[in-house]
Design a protein that fits this description.
With 118 residues, the protein is an all-beta fold. The chain has no helices and 11 strands. It is globular. The mean pLDDT is 97.
Length: 118
């Protein structure tokens, strides 16, 4: 599975940004899709995932209410819409895919940098 992220950049606190991830190499609707991030000096954190049919999603408290994951199973693309961005959201954001719900991610993208300035 190949995952290619796009949409990162530099924004101001309070702004919104949407990341995209195009997947190939496997039937997209077979994959649980998610996003993780890693800030400098910190461990990688999952910021959400979405089920195969797009009907359910999960978010940690750190982003709940601000981030939304969606997917388009025709375009083989998953999105991460980030609202009300904070400086602490600054990180490299990775698209990821899992073969089973509840398991660790099996595949990772190369990452895209999001920088939020105050």
């Amino acid at each position: 599975v190949q995952l290619v992220e796009s949409g990162g950049g530099s924004v101001q606190a309070g702004d919104s940004l949407t990341l995209s991830c195009a997947a190939s190499g496997r039937t997209f609707s077979d994959l649980i899709m998610g996003w993780s991030r890693q800030a400098p000096g910190k461990e990688r954190e999952t910021v959400g995932y979405i089920t195969r049919d797009g009907m359910r999603s999960y978010y940690p408290n750190s982003v709940k209410g601000r981030f939304t994951i969606s997917r388009d199973n025709v375009k083989n693309t998953v999105y991460l819409k980030m609202n009300s961005l904070k400086p602490e959201d600054t990180a490299i954001y990775y698209c990821a895919a899992a073969l089973r719900l509840g398991s660790e991610f099996n595949y990772w993208g190369q990452g895209t940098l999001v920088t939020v300035s105050s």
